């Protein structure tokens, strides 16, 4: 799919930097992923096309040059971003027309394309605004920066949208030479262990087939269903405070426990199945944190693009269910993520992949990463959204969620915060995953964890 209208190249066009390794991966013959961001409006959408064009022209295109660029291959064989002479926004604004008089359930089964104004009610909203952005342009964090440039605060457009503050968890280890040597040795051991686990998982072993992993090589092109659920952020923070973990740890542990409950219910024999999740971590937060407001400034180059790492996280096995076992999922998940988060394997793997790309080419590198994704059972990623209610050209937004299309997993879970709520979305393969039952199991898992930790 092409985002922008292709124009003939001219001498005045600006040649931008080469496409990053992650960008090449997401725009290869092996994988082509797009991010779909859905904004649910409180009222029926009444935006004329001309106003949408003006909004995108003045708010979205200035965010970053990639929104007015295409990928070209130079004479040296290097793929680069190249600005087009003109972006024809009318080609990329879609307002679908569906049969009238249908139920909200019917309109839930809508098509998803580049930019849609869906002027029909669903079970959750009076209308939907849908952005579809190719992953080669940037990751979900970059997408959020681009999206907020088109929105204003619903209560006061003159005030900026604000986001939860990121707090990087720091080690409380003792100082001194002995402590330094101990941490260095631990880091070296963890790095070697993490790199070997990731390499062996990609080259030599795959997860067991299970109720959430079909092993079908065509999984990325099969029809999917999307279900969402909402959790109060205050409840999640209460669990976080009681257990001394992060919000991300609580939700990832909830998803893991819910997944195991689903597997056990669908096939009791799968409770001990080897199951690994690919957790996508924003690497911008490893050393410093760039705010979404900074990234949304016009023509910014600050931390834009695909800056994330794939973490292989083993999903704990579920042998019996108890209150203590529910909390163990959160604690185990937290310990594993922290161990891997600060492992040198993340940066070393990125450098090795870049070297591999230079030696073998981006298609060979994409094939390697494709195998890494295919060897696991599920994927989990998250983003932060605004604290205040947003509005798009005076249209209040009551809810939002995002999904990743073209995924190589039968189950892909996304999480986003907005207005004091956490919205969890599950993309599941139709005909293989019972999405309603999986949703119910995740909700049940959260109930177990909340009751065990807070009562």
Automatic annotation (TrEMBL):
It catalyses: an acyl-CoA + a 1,2-diacyl-sn-glycerol = a triacyl-sn-glycerol + CoA; a long chain fatty alcohol + a fatty acyl-CoA = a long-chain alcohol wax ester + CoA. Pathway: Lipid metabolism; Glycerolipid metabolism; triacylglycerol biosynthesis. Pfam families: WS_DGAT_C (PF06974), WS_DGAT_cat (PF03007). It is a single-pass membrane protein. Residues 109-251 form the O-acyltransferase WSD1-like N-terminal domain. The keyword Protein transport does not apply. Keywords: Acyltransferase, Endoplasmic reticulum, Transferase. GO terms for cellular component: endoplasmic reticulum membrane; plasma membrane. In the N-terminal section; belongs to the long-chain O-acyltransferase family. This is Diacylglycerol O-acyltransferase. It comes from Linum tenue.
